[in-house]
Every structure is written in structure tokens, then in C-alpha cells.
Amino acid sequence: MRLSILLLALLAGCSTITSTEMRVASTLLESELDGAEMMICKLIPISTWQKRYGSTPERAAAWDRLCNQAQSVPVVPTKASAP
To answer: Residues 24-40, buried b or exposed e (16+ Cβ, 10 A)?
Structure first.
């Protein structure tokens, strides 16, 4: 996050950006995205996953598509979605 803000601040003052600068920016932002996906897909605590993604089948399926995990994802109903 801090890296993205720093990169944005550095590039905001420039009227022209060279291809080398764009390549560096792209690499840095890809690294940030890889870290975010690692956190969402592999390092998320189960209680957080249940609250954010396990509450509905649609959210669980979206997480499953993003992370390309198991064939099925458990859905934990919340009080609002319980019958």
C-alpha cells in the first residue's frame, strides 16, 4: 500500500513517463497485487473468511474463482441469511 502511494506520488508530478518507468511501475504494482492475493487466498484467518466470503454461496464462489482452490467451498450461513 505504501509502495503504491509512493509510486503514485512520484508519477503524478511527471508530465511524461518513459517506457522504463512504466515497466518499473507495472512490476511494483504486480508485486503489490500478488501480496494482496496471497493474503486473501492463503493467509486469511478462517473466521475472517467465514464473515467475508462464507456468508453466501455467491461470495464463496467468487472467492473460489479468484483463488482457484478446491472444487467446493463451505458456506456458513449468518444470522441474516439463516432461514
So the answer is: ebeeeeeeeeeeeeeeb
